[in-house]
Write a structure and sequence with these properties.
The complex is a heterodimer of chains A (about 170) and B (about 100). Chain A is about 75% helix and about 0% strand. With about 170 residues, chain A is mainly alpha-helical. The radius of gyration of chain A is 21 Å and the shape is globular. Chain B is elongated and about 50 Å long. The chains are: A mainly alpha (about 170), B mainly alpha (about 100).
């Protein structure tokens, strides 16, 4: 019971951390603050994956999002702003209509989520998932796996092609 | 007890904040951050349903594919942002209006 209470407290802590830092991403005026708030959002989502028993995905989230995408985004910020003037501000536009639309959409989403009686399976997942994810990828999802690898290769070549300096 | 609905509400909040970021921010890099929030919300939904509703890990495999697509999307989108900055010297999306009639 004590353990259960402790895990609930931890769950709500990470839930609040995730949503609050996502709000900072949306509302902060400084772009660097946005990027570091995004770091905490990714951490919080990885922690929620741990609560859902997805240990491999939590590790993947840390490696790819925090180690890869966030660094890419920081590079993007640094390369598209002049660092010597400290004006890394970002503007907002049409804030009020967008906020109204988003609040209405969120209300509709939550309303129907709570009204729907979702199918609950009795079986409970437990134990590490890495081996079974590997088996599934190599057996049932082998074609999407290969397509995803081709997609990654194409994206890397395409990104290099787009930013290449034309020499002629 | 923590149930499916808790995760769905967190995911809906992340998704809404991502949409708000995409709609209101004018910096292209910041819009990309909003898209990452939306993709994370989708992943959280898939994994929550995979645990509570399906009872197997197929949803986690889908989440891996989403992460792959998110990584390639970030790489290509930042390349586009950099070349846009090189051409119009700005990452303000309202300034990229060359195709406006």
């Amino acid at each position: 019971m004590d353990n259960n209470l402790l895990s609930q407290i931890a769950f709500y802590f990470f839930a609040v951390l995730t949503v609050a830092s996502a709000a900072v991403v949306v509302f902060a005026r400084n772009l660097i603050h946005c990027a570091f708030a995004l770091l905490f959002t990714f951490f919080g989502v990885a922690a929620l994956y741990v609560f859902l028993g997805a240990d491999f995905l939590a590790a993947t989230q840390m490696v790819i999002y925090v180690g890869g995408i966030l660094v890419l985004i920081l590079f993007g910020i640094m390369l598209t702003n002049k660092l010597y003037d400290v004006k890394l501000k970002t503007g907002k536009s049409q804030f009020v209509p967008a906020a109204v639309i988003v609040v209405v959409m969120f209300a509709i989403l939550v309303f129907f989520m709570l009204r729907t009686s979702w199918f609950q399976s009795g079986s409970v997942l437990s134990g590490p998932t890495t081996a079974s994810i590997g088996e599934l990828l190599m057996r049932d999802f082998i074609l999407p796996f290969e397509v995803a690898s081709i997609l990654l290769l194409l994206a890397l070549i395409g990104a290099a092609m787009i930013v290449r300096r034309r020499s002629e | 007890m923590i149930g499916l609905n808790h995760y769905l509400i967190i995911s809906a909040a992340l998704f809404s904040l991502g949409i708000l970021c995409v709609l209101t921010r004018r910096n292209a890099v910041n819009v990309l951050m909003g898209i990452e929030l939306i993709l994370n919300a989708a992943n959280l939904n898939l994994i929550a349903f995979s645990k509570y509703s399906a009872g197997n890990i197929d949803g986690q495999v889908f989440a891996i594919f989403i992460i792959v697509v998110a990584a390639s999307e970030a790489a290509v989108a930042l390349a586009i942002v950099l070349s846009m900055y090189r051409i119009i010297r700005s990452v303000n999306l309202d300034r990229a209006d060359t195709l406006k009639g």
